[in-house]
Amino acid sequence: MAAAIRAFIAIALPTSIKDLLADAQQQLRACKVNAKWVRPANMHLTLKFLGAIDPNAVELVADAAARSVRRSTPFELKVGGAGVFPNLKRPRVLWAGLQGHLPQLNRLQRALQNELAALGFAPEKKAFKAHLTLARFKGAINAGYLKKGLDALQNLVSDPFTVNRLILFQSDLKPTGAVYRELAVVDLPSS
User: Which CATH number is 5-187's, of 3.40.50.300, 3.40.50.150, 2.40.110.10, 3.90.1140.10?
Assistant: First the structure.
């Protein structure tokens, strides 16, 4: 039996969005925000983290993703604003927000989650909140520096980008950071 692979389903971001987010990270670094920064090349919009899956299940997961997009069509999102989870007093994740056709994104995410639940993947316990992770925090954070950095990003807005596919990624954790590999691509119907 093949070793399990770590996998997730996400929306890939165009280079222009990754560049904008890299610039935002630099602004935060200038505000002396100490964090573990996500490499811009790895930035994406996660719709469902699957965890460790059997490599033989890749086709089943891809088929479930294909069923989930049947009632969707391409739509636009854009980056807008920034914040932290869970809150400024105990931040763990620094994120950039999303704007645009969020109801369509939420319907797509729910459809995906429902299709995957039929395969035995447990639904998320928390409500889906669309975001792009910029950094993760461990330990104490200087709240003043973080607040200054977030204030600097409140006007962060991108041009719209089109969401027209889902990607099933394999994630290999390395000492230098995660390495992602596309396992399957599912296009949203054009109309």
Answer: 3.90.1140.10
